[in-house]
Amino acid sequence: MKKILKSVVLKAILTLIISVSLVFGITVGGIRLHRLNLSNRYNFDYLKGGANKVILFVGDGMGKDHIEVTEAYYEKELFFKSFKKHGSVSTASLDVLKSTDSASTATAFATGKKVHNKEISTLNYQSLPTITEYLKENGIGVGLVSTDNLYSQTIAAYSSHTTNEENIDDIISKQSSSGVDLFLGSGKDKYASQKFIFNEQGYHYYTNYREIDVNAKKVIGVFDELSDEKTNTTIPSLDVLTKIAVNFMETNFPNGYFLVIECGHIDKMSHNANIFKMMEYLANFDKAINETYETLKEDENCTIIVTSNHETGGLNYNGEAKDDINSMALITYDGHTLVDVPYYIHFGKNDMNNYFLPDIIDNTDIYKICKALLSD
Ligand SMILES: [Zn+2]
Predict the structure, then answer these.
(1) How far is the CA of 157 from the centre of ligand 1 (A)?
(2) Number of structural domains found in the chain
(3) Cα(58) to centroid of ligand 1, in Å?
(4) Is residue 230 very low, low, confident or very high in pLDDT (cuts 50, 70, 90)?
C-alpha cells in the first residue's frame, strides 16, 4: 500500500514538473520545453507587400549540426548561410510530450496552426484554411517540389487536408483538385493510376523531367526517385527540378508566385544513419538555393527563405576533421528531436534586410511571414 502511494505521489510530482516546464519554459540540453506558448508571439504584418515572389526551401530533418558537418566535409561554407537574416525555429506539435513529426510542422507552415502529429492541414477532423487556398483565390501561382513522394507530408499539407498522413489515396485525390499549378517529385507508381484525374483537372502529366513544357498551364511531374546529384538521363536531382520549377513559375506567373522546394532526404538519410548520403543531398539542396538566388538576385520582389521542419538524428558534431567524420559517432538518436532548427532569409528589397526579425520564431511564424510578404 505504502509502495503504491509512493508511486502515485512520485507520478504527481513528475507530472507537475513537466506541466510547469511546458507552460513556463525550461531549456534542457538545448531543447526548449516551453512548448505551449510558442505560437502567436509575433505579428509579421509589417512585412506586408514585401515581395510578390516567395521561395521557401525546406530541409527536412536539417538541424544546425547537419549544416556544420556538411561544411566540414566539403570544406566550405554553405551558400544559404550568407543570407542576412537568420535565427532559429521552434518545432513542437500539439502532442507536447512527443517528438514533432513532418505532418504537424508541414501543417504549421501551410496553415499557421499547431496540430497533432500525423494531421495534414486539419485539426481534430476540421480542415484548416491553407496559404495555398488563399493565394489561389488571389490569382497567385503555387508550385510544390520535393525529393520525396508528392503525397509526403510537406507537399500534402500545402495541397490537401486529411486527418492522417497515411491516407495516401485521399491526399492524391485532393491534390488533383487543389489548384496547385506545379507538382514535381517522386512517387511515380502511386500516381500512375490517378493520371486521368489529374488530366481531367487540366494537368499535363510527366514522368520524364526532360519532357516538361514550362509553357504548359498546370504540370505534375512524378518520378521514380530523385538522385543526390549524379544525374543520369531519367533521374533528376533537386537542383535540376528547382531550375525547371523557377522557369515554370517565372513563365506562367511573372507577377507573383509561391514556390516550396523540399529536400526530404536530409531526414531520410539521417534515419538511415547514412551521414555521407545526407551530406550529398544537403549539398545539392544548397546548390539549388544558390542557383535560384543567382537567377533571381536582381528581382527586388523575390524573397528566399530557407528552413527546416524538425531535426532528425540528434546529430552531435564536435568539430571532427573531414577524414574523421563517422555516421555512428554523429547520430545520437533514432528519430526526430525537439531542438530548434535554423532559418535564413534573403529579402530582395535590400532595406528589408535591416528589418527586425526575432532570433527565435515558431514554425507557425513561417506561415505568417510567407503570407504577409505575399499580401498587400
Ligand atoms: Zn523523419
Answers:
(1) 16
(2) 2
(3) 13
(4) low
